[in-house]
Amino acid sequence: MTPTQIAGDVLILAGALAFLVGAIGLLRLPDLYSRLNGVTISGAFGPALILIGLLVQQPSVGNALKVGLALVIQLATSAVGGSAMARAGYLTGAPQAEETRFDDLVVELDEQAGKEHPGYSRPDT
């Protein structure tokens, strides 16, 4: 095996491991929002690592263009899809785990309505 084949295999294996970590997170994390975080990240970087590994093994300009386009589409749709699913979960009232209960959106909406949140301090921006 050549060094490029080994590097490609390592990247493909890392992509497969990213999927495995996402699957474990889907089973072990406590609520919808935590699960979405794990699955969205592994769903974005798993295919990216696999595609880059394939490109390392079969380098060509045509393959680079195809992989580049696939990466742009994958990363964009993964982020937008994760946000859309989280918003849908929030709007339908998906339950939150106690350890992840704090709701920044409620604080923001309450502050706009003139309500106070004494225990909340806004981070410096």
UniProtKB/TrEMBL annotation:
Pfam families: PhaG_MnhG_YufB. The keyword Transmembrane applies. Keywords: Membrane, Transmembrane, Transmembrane helix. The chain crosses the membrane at residues 6-29, 36-56, 68-86. One of its GO terms (molecular function) is sodium:proton antiporter activity. PANTHER family: ANTIPORTER SUBUNIT MNHG2-RELATED. Belongs to the CPA3 antiporters (TC 2.A.63) subunit G family. This is Monovalent cation/H(+) antiporter subunit G.
